[in-house]
């Protein structure tokens, strides 16, 4: 995978996953129970059950992609605080592997990340930390120290903020247009196209 593919394909793909996560999360909150789901392909039923069977994986995949983008930018979490990641692995693809006018881009610092948030900085930090902690402790492995208490506002701030961070710290610095990820809609799931 080269840097052009990362910028043109993989980052837009991950941004789309974050958009899909927010959409699916809202569907889970808004749809009345029992949320019966039937999936048909070419007239053949492939799946029947609760809508969570489809929506939950969309949410979980979005968390993984959000974490990936934060780590790509150079952000991590330690002891409940947003931090700049340390050394990268040899095969990591990271923001500092991209150059603008012959100068390597730098890892995004927590201060730089939070400067884009117009609300209270501790709220913005909490949202980004929530993505990292929930992904690390909730999806990647079992743990006895799972952090809870995060809420819909944390997820909304992160889902809106991560694309802004990617825009400000990568695409704008490379003087490139930001890829626009189409927003999923119920029509995307029900159309016959």
Briefly characterize the structure.
By secondary structure, this protein is α+β, with helices and mostly antiparallel strands.
Would you mind describing this structure in some detail?
- The chain has six helices and six strands; from the N terminus they run αββαββββαααα.
- The protein has a two-stranded antiparallel ribbon with strand order 1-2. Strands 3-4 form a two-stranded antiparallel sheet. A two-stranded antiparallel ribbon has the order 5-6.
- With 193 residues, the protein is α+β, with helices and mostly antiparallel strands.
- 27% of the residues are buried.
- The C terminus is likely disordered.
- The chain starts with a helix and ends with a helix.
- The longest helix is centred in the first third of the chain and has 28 residues.
- It is 52% helix and 13% strand.
């Amino acid at each position: 995978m080269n840097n052009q593919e990362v910028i043109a394909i993989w980052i837009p793909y991950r941004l789309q996953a974050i958009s899909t996560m927010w959409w699916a999360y809202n569907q889970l909150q808004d749809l009345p129970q029992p949320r019966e789901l039937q999936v048909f392909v070419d007239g053949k039923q492939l799946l029947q059950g609760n809508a969570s069977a489809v929506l939950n994986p969309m949410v979980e995949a979005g968390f993984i992609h959000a974490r990936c983008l934060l780590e790509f930018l150079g952000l991590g979490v330690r002891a409940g605080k947003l931090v700049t990641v340390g050394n990268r692995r040899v095969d990591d693809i990271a923001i500092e592997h991209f150059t603008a006018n012959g100068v390597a881009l730098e890892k995004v610092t927590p201060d730089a990340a939070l400067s884009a948030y117009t609300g209270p900085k501790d709220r913005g930090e909490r949202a980004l930390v929530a993505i990292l902690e929930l992904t690390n402790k909730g999806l990647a492995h079992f743990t006895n120290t799972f952090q809870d208490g995060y809420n819909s506002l944390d997820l909304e701030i992160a889902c809106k903020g991560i694309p802004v961070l990617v825009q400000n710290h990568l695409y704008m610095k490379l003087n490139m247009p930001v890829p626009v990820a189409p927003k999923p809609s119920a029509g995307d799931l029900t159309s016959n196209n």
